[in-house]
Specification:
Radius of gyration: 27 Å
Helix content: 40-55%
Number of strands: 14
Structural class: alpha/beta
Length: about 450
Amino acid sequence: MEDDPTALIGGDKKRTAILVGVHLKKNDRLEAEESLHELALLAQTLFIQVEQTFLVSRSHIDSALVLGSGKAEEILRWIRVHPVDLILFDEPLSPVQGKNLRNLFNVRMLDRVELILHIFSLRAKTSEAKIQVELARLKYLLPRLVRMWGHFSRQTGGGSWLKGGGETQLEVDRRHIRVKIQSLTKKLEEIEKNRELQRKERLRKKYPLFSLVGYTNAGKSSLFNTLTHSQTLSASQLFCTLDSLSRKFILSQGRTAILTDTVGFVRKLPHFLVESFKATLEEVSEADCLIHVLDGSVKDLDKKIQTVNEVIFELKASRKPQLIAINKADLISEETRGNIAIHVKDGIFISALTGEGISLLREKMEEIIKRKYSRLSYFFPMDKVKIAQFLFSSEVAVLEKQYLEEGLFITAEVNEEIQGKIKDFEITYSEGTADEIG
């Protein structure tokens, strides 16, 4: 993989490519077609012009050439008549497959994961995102590191003490990458420490946390801007957001909460890529509620829901309360809405563009918080006031506090655990209760 991702789109020349996918006969062909269509969208994100698409049906992936020698020869004949700059494979290429295909086609080869990494490299703006992308790139590169210019001869003589006698250049390169992976991992750990401090501050202020999750280009960033009245980058592009963004916003009944936008998911997302962005995606596992944003205008909605749910499961957040926001309702016909409603239970049709359904979504978010927190009033006699002190340092929103001669009056929103600890001090709240006690 080239070090400079802009090489794919650099210069005045527009890059051209063909797409190659494999349909395993035991699987649904439509799914393979949709995956290949998504590969075309990924290519367009890098301004690569797709000249032709090949979808090969096979009983298995060929270990040498992915698609078998016969189909490979057919594609080679096509390339000789229609030269292109790139061949993009929808399947991951092993080092052996990559080498064999390069020798056969003599054209630069990229698989789906490598293409995504190039997009990530271009999208990364913050220091953290750049480190995450570089870490993912190196993890991808390490098992595929094969020198194409042939210096596999043994290194001899008195070099660095790091290099043992008879160590190949390939081994040196692999060790160098492993060291760099360790260094980047440490940097991410430092960033995560700072993020943890921010989390603790947020908990201290007792703000409920909602996280937007969803397939890439579902409209999460647009919804984020609508709910928080922000102006973050929002465009109809794959992986528009790589960095986790958090903003305060006001729910329907005036409660302050935190909303987080996260990187979009995509099918065939490799584990190492999720692992590299784990620090950013920690917001998902910390959330009180996930808002799963769907693009209601797409055809393969079920598959995209499945993809997102798989990543949520990997992040150990599948038991979190979840609201389903079916976005782009302004592009969906009534008939399509009816069909979606059958398959997506309790989904809320919204449009981040027109504002349709946003009020209802806010109400549902409020209901989620109410399930977790109950608004209750307590009175602590003077000799028991110390018991109430933990409320001010725990995950409790204290809405009202009055010190009286007889003791301390508090109205707070508390979860079941806290309710159990102080149930003996609960009182029935009514307007002017504190005055009555006083």
